[in-house]
Amino acid sequence: MHRTIIGRRTLVAQKTGKDYPGYLFVLEGIDGAGKTAVCRSVAQNLTEMGFQVAILREPTDESKWGKEIRRRSPMGELTPSEELDLFIKDRDWNIRNRLIPALKDGKIVLMDRYFFATGAYQSTSTGLHWSEILKKNREGIAAIEPDIVFILDISAEEGLCRVTGRGCETNQQFEKHDRLVEVRKAYLEMVKSDWGNYFVIDATFPLKEVVSLVKSEIIRFMKENARKSL
Ligand code: TMP
Question: Is the minimum distance from the CB of 31 to ligand 1 under 6 angstroms?
């Protein structure tokens, strides 16, 4: 029997009734929603509380498939089905080599994008329904189900504005307005119709508020889990 004790250093966030003692929380949203900044701040907050935290991101910049996506996708060199295939292969690598070891160590893993991104983005390019793409991940590569999927929700206009505003080179393949409208729509449909544990946050709130909301929901979830295991 494990308990999560909040407020002491060297905490191991352990949960019962699952294959791994750690927790998996995912941040999703269209480009410019602020996932990466939120991920970093939440990780810092949880680390300061004494938790062991790992941040993972997808596509990775480690596997050969992730590297290929990062190199070729911005050039528009990949067909939609090649892209889908690479995202799933990269994820399979990430799960086996990074996610499972971290969860086995009892870490809180924060994922900056996961298979819900493939559902939302690749449904708009391949013509497959997002639910089929989620299924390919859940059944095809046995992708681990997150404890919570946070959807940082923002309009395509605002997201694009933020991306452009931060001075990044615009990614021709991914950051087009009309596509982001469709991607957002797919995320919100998932929240309504998929069985995952989603939590939607208005990402137009100031960063500090979004961080605080994500952090308190994570802590609430872990406390609840600890209570159930008593
Ligand atoms: P990033 O901005 O989070 O680094 O992600 C790079 C782009 O990759 C982003 O526009 C979303 C896209 N993407 C997909 O199209 N499918 C996926 O499965 C993932 C993980 C990302």
Answer: yes
As a whole number, mean pLDDT of residues 124-140 equals 97
Atom of ligand 1 nearest to the CA of 171: 10
Cβ–ligand 1 contact at 179 (below 6 Å): no
Kindly state if the Cβ of 199 falls inside 6 Å of ligand 1.
no
**CA 1 / ligand 1 centre spacing (Å):** 38
| Arithmetic mean of pLDDT, 199-205 | 97
Q: How many beta carbons lie within 10 A of that of residue 14, not counting itself?
A: 20
Asked if 184 contacts 155 with a C-beta cutoff of 8 angstroms, the reply is: yes
Q: Which residue has the tokens 């935290």?
A: 53
What number of other Cβ atoms are within 10 A of residue 172's Cβ? 11
Domain spans, the chain: 7-58+106-228
Per-residue pLDDT, 172: 47
Structure pTM?
0.91
- The span from the CA of 106 to the CA of 110, in Å, is 13
User: CATH homologous superfamily of domain 7-58+106-228?
Assistant: P-loop containing nucleotide triphosphate hydrolases (3.40.50.300)
